[in-house]
Every structure is written in C-alpha cells, then in structure tokens.
From TrEMBL:
<dbReference type="GO" id="GO:1990281">
    <property type="term" value="C:efflux pump complex"/>
</dbReference>
<dbReference type="GO" id="GO:0015562">
    <property type="term" value="F:efflux transmembrane transporter activity"/>
</dbReference>
<feature type="region of interest" description="Disordered">
    <location>
        <begin position="1"/>
        <end position="31"/>
    </location>
</feature>
<feature type="compositionally biased region" description="Basic and acidic residues">
    <location>
        <begin position="16"/>
        <end position="29"/>
    </location>
</feature>
<dbReference type="GO" id="GO:0009279">
    <property type="term" value="C:cell outer membrane"/>
</dbReference>
<feature type="coiled-coil region">
    <location>
        <begin position="236"/>
        <end position="263"/>
    </location>
</feature>
<feature type="region of interest" description="Disordered">
    <location>
        <begin position="75"/>
        <end position="114"/>
    </location>
</feature>
<protein>
    <submittedName>
        <fullName>TolC family protein</fullName>
    </submittedName>
</protein>
<dbReference type="InterPro" id="IPR051906">
    <property type="entry name" value="TolC-like"/>
</dbReference>
<feature type="compositionally biased region" description="Polar residues">
    <location>
        <begin position="98"/>
        <end position="114"/>
    </location>
</feature>
<keyword id="KW-1134">Transmembrane beta strand</keyword>
<keyword id="KW-0175">Coiled coil</keyword>
<keyword id="KW-0812">Transmembrane</keyword>
<feature type="region of interest" description="Disordered">
    <location>
        <begin position="351"/>
        <end position="374"/>
    </location>
</feature>
<keyword id="KW-0472">Membrane</keyword>
<keyword id="KW-0998">Cell outer membrane</keyword>
<dbReference type="GO" id="GO:0015288">
    <property type="term" value="F:porin activity"/>
</dbReference>
C-alpha cells in the first residue's frame, strides 16, 4: 500500500507543477513552484463551508510555517480533511504509524521472553531490567513520551498541511473549469504552494525524528539508566548474600555464647571466656544490622530506578556469563567498534576548525579521543579476562566448600558434632557461596559494561 501511495504522488508531480506555473503566470508576486504531490485524485464538488475553511487555512499558513507546535493544534487545521475522510497522502513516516500502544509495543519488544505478568510481579530478574526501565523509570518514560508527543504533533501538522494544500488545488481546479476569476485562481494556487512548503518542513522534521541517529540518541538516554540499574541490581544481590552470611555468623556466635553460659554454670570456663563470646555475638549482630540496613537502602534505590514501590521486591538469580559470551569477544574488532561509538570521538570529529593551528589542534583532539577509546577497550577487555579467572577460582572454592558442608551436615545429623560446630561450618559454606556470587556479579557487570561501551554508553 505504501508503494501505491508513493506511485500516486510521483504520477501527480507533473500536473501539480503545471498548475503552479499557471499561478505564477497569473501573478508574478507568488511563491516559486515547489515539488509538491497533491493531485491524482477525483475532485469532488465542495460546498461554501469548505471554501471558507480553505481560505482560512491559506490565511493561517504563514503562522503555521513559523510555529510547528501551534500548527498541529490550531482549530483551523482540525477541519482540513477532504470530504472523503481519507488519510492525507504520502505519510511522512514510512516505517510505522503512531498509535496509543506504541510505547507498550516498544516495551514488549524489549522484554524478550518475559510476560507482562512477570514484569509486573515483585521478582526482579536481571534480564528484565531494560524493559522495566523503559516502562517505569521517570527519565526513560519522560524521554519516550516527549518523543511520541513531538512525533504526533509534527505528523498531525504535516497531514493538515497536505490536506489544506489539496483543498486549495481543488478550488483552483473548480474555478478554472468554471472559467472563474484568474486572480482568485492564482491566489488558491499560491496558498497551496505555501501550505506545501510547510508540509515539506514538517516532513523533514519527521524524518529527522525517526532517523537512526535520533533513535540511537533516545536509546542512549535509556541505556544509561539501564546500565545504572544493572550495577544497582548487582549491588543489591551482593548485599543480600552478605546479609545471609552475616545472619549465619550471628547465629553461630549466639550458639557459642549460649554454650559458654552453660559451661560457666558448670565451672568449665571463666567469666572472661563468656564475656568474649558475648562480645563476639554483639559484633556479629551489629554487622548483621548494618548489612541489612545497607541492603534495604540499596533495594529501595533499585525500586525507585525501576518505578517500583517499597522494598517488597526480591531479586532473581544471577545470570552467569557463559563461555559463548566470552568467546564472542574480539579485541581488535571491538576496539575499532568502541572508537567509532565513542561520544568523545564523535564530538571531536564533528568540531570545525579554521586556520592551520586550529585544524592541527582538532586533529590532535581526534587522535587523543580515539586513543582514549582504544585504551578503554583494552582495559575493559583485560578486566573481564581477570574477573573470569577470579570467577573460576571462586567456583572451585565453592564446590570444595559444598562438599565439606555436605559432610558437616551428615556429621551433625549423626550426632558426631555439636550445633555450634555445625553452624560454623554452615557459615563458612555460605561465605564461599557469597564469594562466588560476588565473582559472578562482578564478571556480569564488567561484561555488560563492555557491551555498553560498544554502543557508545559510557
């Protein structure tokens, strides 16, 4: 259908330009002929009310050209559609139309395999973060609404200008066929030119709004927030693991303090031993409370980032960086991509310079920006390599601790060890588990930061 519309526009070009030339011959004070595509349609007889509206449109054209925002909302424009109630010819946006659900469609495309119910529940998965940011973060939502509103305003104004220009040409045709006044015919045709020029400007604005660079700019705004949310999610996950480990440590020291009280009563330890056990317990409880407060604060901050309420949210599992993801990294290719995507490099390249000294300085600034982007890629690549080794070491340590803990559980169940010894073993196991998850989070965060670098997100 889009190709058919374009065909109609192209076929109408010659006829429209001919009308414009006629208008110029009638009155040389008129605007120059423009490449406007407004004909190719059956002309219907239009009553006096339409004629009045069309004249009003023409008189308002200069205002509309200078004020795009008002153009779309001016009452005169709301009545410029043709009698057939068909849409204006040649939609300015060729890759999609604006609908009330456009924002929801964007969210759906970003949420991947996550359902609407999953995105709305209290469990925050790492993979959901971009979709949640797009639908709940104030900055991201505001940027999207601003874009959609601007797009709608310009599209409405564009359609109004095209429709109004067509009306002017219809009137000129009717008067010409009826042998009407040449001056009035020329006025209609010049009005059509004015409206068509406004339509062209709106179309340029729409093309710019819908360009790849515009989309990239909007995405970078969102991606900055997503990157922050990923870091915050990782921080929350680490703190939650630390809370779990701290709770077991406090439980272990509680058991030790209880045992010392019994031993003191039986004359098996001194008061100094009991005081030391109680001191250890107090320190563990203080550490637990402090870590819990930090975890709750971090969780509240994450909730704010995602537009969620309160601290009732929980976090899903850590998405481990796979061997496939690591193997996909190619330092030479990624370094070149990072240089191209770097905002500093782009800024330096866009700058202008006059004179030899200024051009030399500009060239130096470009080289420095490219060198910095290249060095950053090298550093991040090396960091990922180091964190990958740390993750492997933490995984080996955790697997060993898991075996030891399994043996400790068997001993405790058989009565071979007391509860305090069992709790100590459990705390040690949980500590190794927390260290592994910290290593996983650090690697995941570094890997994603590397991916953001390739997209130009600092």
């Amino acid at each position: 259908m889009m190709r058919n519309l374009k065909g109609k526009w192209m076929n109408a070009e010659a006829g429209t330009e001919q009308k414009m030339r006629k208008g110029q011959e009638r009155d040389r004070s008129g605007a120059s002929a423009l490449d406007v595509h407004l004909d190719g349609y059956n002309v219907k007889r239009i009553g006096k009310s339409r004629l009045t509206r069309s004249i009003g449109i023409a008189l308002a054209a200069c205002i509309l050209v200078s004020s795009p925002a008002q153009a779309a909302k001016t009452p005169l424009i709301s009545g410029t559609e043709s009698d057939s109630d068909s849409e204006a010819d040649g939609p300015a946006l060729e890759d999609g139309t604006i609908t009330e659900n456009s924002a929801d469609n964007t969210i759906a495309s970003q949420s991947g395999s996550y359902t609407e119910e999953q995105l709305a529940d209290s469990v925050i998965e790492y993979g959901e973060l971009e979709a949640l940011v797009r639908r709940g973060n104030g900055t991201a939502v505001s940027a999207d609404y601003s874009y959609q509103d601007s797009l709608a305003v310009h599209q409405e104004a564009y359609d109004a200008m095209i429709s109004g220009a067509r009306d002017m040409n219809y009137k000129a045709d009717e008067l010409e066929d009826a042998g009407g006044d040449e001056a009035l015919i020329g006025t209609y045709e010049r009005n059509a030119q004015t409206l068509s020029m406004a339509a062209k400007q709106y179309k340029k604005s729409l093309t710019s709004l819908n360009s790849a660079s515009s989309r990239a700019s909007r995405n970078r705004t969102v991606w900055q927030v997503v990157k922050t949310a990923q870091i915050q999610w990782g921080t929350c996950r680490q703190l939650q693991d630390e809370v779990e480990a701290a709770a077991k440590t406090a439980e272990n020291y509680q058991a030790q303090a209880d045992r010392k009280e019994r031993e003191l009563a039986a004359g098996l330890c001194t008061e100094t031993d009991l005081l030391q056990a109680q001191k250890n317990l107090l320190s563990a409880q203080t550490a637990l409370q402090s870590t819990t407060d930090q975890a709750n604060k971090a969780l509240r901050q994450l909730a704010i980032l995602l537009g969620k309420s309160g601290t009732s949210i929980t976090l899903g599992e850590i998405p481990a960086v796979s061997a496939t993801e690591l193997a996909s990294m190619n330092l030479d290719a990624d370094r070149a991509a990072a240089v191209v995507a770097s905002s500093s490099v782009k800024s330096a390249r866009r700058s202008s310079a006059t004179g030899d000294a200024a051009r030399k300085l500009r060239h130096q600034q470009i080289e420095e920006a490219e060198s910095a982007a290249s060095a950053s890629a090298d550093e991040q690549y090396a960091e990922i390599a180091a964190l990958s080794l740390e993750r492997d070491a933490a995984q080996a340590a955790y697997q060993s601790a898991e075996k030891t803990y399994s043996a400790t559980q068997i001993k405790y169940q058989s009565g071979a060890i007391n509860k305090a010894t069992y709790l100590q073993g459990e705390a040690s196991y949980l500590q190794k588990k927390a260290e592994l998850e910290t290593a996983e989070i650090s690697l995941r965060t570094a890997y994603d930061a590397y991916e953001w670098m390739l997209k130009g997100v600092a």
